[in-house]
Amino acid sequence: MTPAASDPDATAPRATPPRVSFVSLGCPKALVDSERIITSLRAEGYELTKSHGGADVVIVNTCGFIDSAKAESLDAIGAAMAENGKVIVTGCMGAEPGEITARFPNLLAITGPQQYESVVSAVHAAVPPAHDPFVDLVPAQGVKLTPRHYAYLKISEGCNNRCSFCIIPHLRGDLVSRPAGDVLREAERLVKAGVKELLVISQDTSAYGLDVKYAESPWKDRAVRARFLDLTRELGSLGAWVRLHYVYPYPHVDEVIGLMADGLALPYLDIPFQHAAPNVLRAMRRPAHQEKTLERIHRWREICPDLAIRSTFIVGFPGETDEDFAFLLDWLKEAKLERVGCFKYEPVKGARSETLGLPAVPDELKKERWTRFMQTQQAISERNQKKKVGRRVKAIIDEAGPTVARGRTVWDAPDIDGAIYVSSRRPLRAGDIVTVKVERAEAYDLHGMAV
Ligand code: SF4
Asked: Cα–Cα distance between 134 and 259 in angstroms, integer?
């Protein structure tokens, strides 16, 4: 952490609660970090404000995953400096502060990811907390930045993999799993506070517990092991939807698919495959022998025929040949994944992919491959979606509307997947879980009537 600048007014008594403006960038894991920081500050009486101008201090939680994310983070810091001038920077970019301090030498403080206490101390230095027993009260579930009906549940920090395009292990360190009992207590608090859907996140969810040798921890009248399968089963018994993100195709994932078939977790698996061609996967240093994943996907669909698989891919990775790309398209047609995102490879400073000595794919070719990839997947998505017409499906409502509400099926995660537009004779509220007869399908969205 860089030293906090001193503020002559910092110790003066205040008539109103101190106000903080917060910018949260990056992935759901960063969002959970933001929620923890905000929960601590709210517990101490700080108020959140939407405008930088009206705040006593601004916190920017940055993302440093790829160059465009860094640029967005630097822009956000620049805006906060221009509108307010008292700015604390945290998050992934804060792990290597050189680039930030070079451009913004007058920041109050810079801390790395997960350094909640350091951020809170920097806020104290800039503007001390108000001591008011009423404003000090925060809800037991903490402060959430997501809507009330769903919540991200972070089960571990860091990652033991070393994918060559990724600097996250460098920024966030090796895998550190939370005790299963702690995760379950947090999940139970969230469910009691009205959360209907728990979104399990980490860098590598299927590796959960590996670092602690799957240690047991107390939960209610029993001990629960820090194992992906055991934790998912227990989460599934809390009465909320459980959605699993960032899973890798390790053999033990088969058992979790069984829990989906039994209704203990949603039939949804978010697996970032990134590619399919063996040469590219090797250069990417992806975990879990991904060459055999087609067999595994077929097996999962036998266990749970309603399974939706979401994935992301990178095209234009250094050294990706026409043959590799053709292999990827064939694989995609065979895998028939339900939800797919695709990125064009971007060089990442400090990533090993930049030092492998592989030839860069020209930008024009990356763009062309990306377009062909998306067209191929769109045709697959349309076929998958059409099969839903006429079915009765469960949906959670995200946004009420006068005649049509917007929701998501069990096959759609917030922000990244499609929506279902639900007509209803009775008013629907955010968080309602309803049965919908699907009447019409588009490439990514569905339309139907509540029954
Ligand atoms: S699994 Fe690979 S891509 Fe994901 S965080 Fe770990 S190293 Fe990065």
From this structure: 44
